[in-house]
């Protein structure tokens, strides 16, 4: 019995040693044998449903498919399910209630507080704070999803709302390009001169349908020195019905009724306005510059030299070129398990600050070049502009003539201003009605319109905000 016991003990020790050796992850692909236990998600079977580009975004889908392939090679225990649902403020509650939301999904800078208050986004502070690259992130962008000191999202890229001009349409009417340091008067004169209503061409196409109508207009509110809300002793008060608000709304009316510079069919949503620009039906449009330019170059066939990104115009000479600071973020579903949340975080940040990420980007640029397409980077990146990674990225851009480059003066003039902290989309929706009324009825009184809108926003939304 004793010999048998010793043999059994020896076998058990040998098994333990073998288990330890096999558990250190030493393989041909991982000769270093770095630990790969349950904590790093490498053993348990995990399924995550990821945010996936829309069907018409073929280049983006190809890039994401390559990322999926590389990720699952490193984590063969993970099954990736693609979900091309795009965030919609009117759908997220239903998605969460029915447990149909992806493991992580895209959203905007405006949504942080609302998503946190509803419990529709996971607190990823522990994952983020233990991440080795957290100090190299673009702090301006990342701060938009830090609420009460806790991290709720990862920035993908950002923008300061800009104006993009179709130089070709200006050339046709012998209108000189305005200076980058331009004003409302310069925008007005350029829009008026470029407009050709008989040909169906507008000088500028401000968005007039949906929340984006309020979003577009708010840039002018900020430029005139106005604010959406003020906060005192935990109470939120609508203050956009100010002198600055009146100036901004009056300027919209001048473009519509005096200059006849906006589209006759002015009820344009975001995609409508972008499409109008790419089709050469408007000389100017307001949005994130990269979205407009990518569409114009790769779908509209416009040439880079005719698609010029500008900062938003200053209210008057010497003023700031304020545009709404926004961005695209990925947030994690709080209903996901801890393991799923960790793997989602790993997937989101898989290519961040890596040579593989640069290689994938360069491959994407090369593929676009072979297909006669342009690569249009976002003006603001997830990483700090003075980081070593930024230098590596710019070195890649310099190698290719199909990478769109922004005017350095434009980049130096843009001045981003974050949106209101609470109720932003609700406010945009109410202001959309004001914009629509201003475009459809001549002679409306701006102060009265804004007073009524502020009353609506206050009673329906801001008064219901509970003090922190």
TrEMBL record:
Q: What's the short name of a Pfam family annotated to this entry?
A: SBP_bac_1
Keyword Signal assigned to the entry: answer is yes
Q: Which InterPro entries match?
A: Bact_solute-bd_prot1, SBP
Record's signal peptide: 1-19
Keywords of the record: Signal
Can you name this protein? ABC transporter substrate-binding protein
């Amino acid at each position: 019995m004793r010999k048998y016991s010793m043999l059994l003990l020896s076998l058990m020790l040998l098994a333990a040693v073998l288990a330890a050796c096999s558990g250190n992850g030493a393989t041909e692909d991982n000769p270093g044998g770095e630990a790969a236990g349950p904590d790093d998600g490498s053993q348990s079977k995990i399924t995550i449903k990821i945010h996936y580009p829309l069907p018409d975004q073929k280049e983006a889908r190809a890039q994401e498919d390559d990322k999926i392939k590389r990720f699952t090679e490193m984590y063969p225990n993970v099954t990736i399910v693609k979900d091309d649902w795009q965030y919609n403020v009117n759908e997220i509650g239903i998605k969460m209630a029915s447990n149909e939301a992806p493991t992580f999904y895209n959203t905007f800078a405006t949504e942080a507080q609302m998503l946190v208050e509803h419990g529709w986004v996971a607190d990823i502070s522990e994952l983020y704070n233990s991440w080795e690259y957290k100090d190299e992130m673009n702090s301006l962008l990342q701060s938009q999803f830090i609420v009460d000191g806790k991290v709720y999202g990862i920035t993908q890229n950002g923008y300061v709302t800009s104006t993009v001009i179709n130089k070709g349409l200006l050339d046709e009417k012998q209108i000189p390009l305005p200076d980058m340091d331009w004003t409302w008067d310069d925008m007005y004169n350029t829009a008026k001169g470029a407009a050709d209503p008989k040909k169906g061409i507008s000088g500028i196409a401000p968005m007039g349908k949906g929340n984006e109508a309020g979003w577009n207009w708010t840039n002018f509110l900020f430029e005139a020195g106005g604010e959406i809300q003020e906060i005192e002793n935990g109470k939120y008060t609508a203050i956009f019905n100010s002198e600055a608000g009146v100036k901004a709304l009056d300027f919209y009316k001048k473009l519509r009724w005096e200059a006849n510079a906006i589209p006759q069919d002015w009820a344009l949503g975001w995609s409508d306005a972008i499409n109008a620009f790419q089709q050469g039906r408007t000389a100017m449009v307001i949005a994130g510059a990269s979205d407009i330019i990518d569409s114009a170059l790769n779908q509209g066939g416009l040439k880079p030299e005719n698609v010029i990104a500008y900062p938003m115009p200053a209210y008057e000479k010497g003023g700031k070129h304020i545009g709404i600071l926004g961005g695209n973020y990925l947030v994690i579903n709080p209903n996901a398990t801890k393991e799923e949340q960790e793997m989602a975080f790993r997937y989101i940040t898989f290519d961040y600050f890596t040579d593989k990420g640069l290689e994938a980007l360069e491959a994407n640029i090369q593929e676009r070049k072979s297909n006669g397409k342009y690569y249009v980077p976002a003006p603001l990146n997830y990483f700090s502009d003075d980081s070593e990674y930024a230098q590596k990225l710019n070195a890649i851009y310099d190698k290719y003539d199909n990478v769109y480059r922004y005017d350095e003066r434009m980049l130096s003039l843009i001045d981003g201003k974050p949106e209101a902290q609470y109720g932003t989309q609700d406010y945009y929706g109410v202001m959309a009605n004001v914009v629509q009324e201003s475009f459809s009825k001549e002679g409306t009184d701006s102060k009265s319109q804004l007073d009524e809108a502020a009353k609506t926003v206050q009673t329906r939304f801001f008064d219901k905000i509970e003090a922190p």
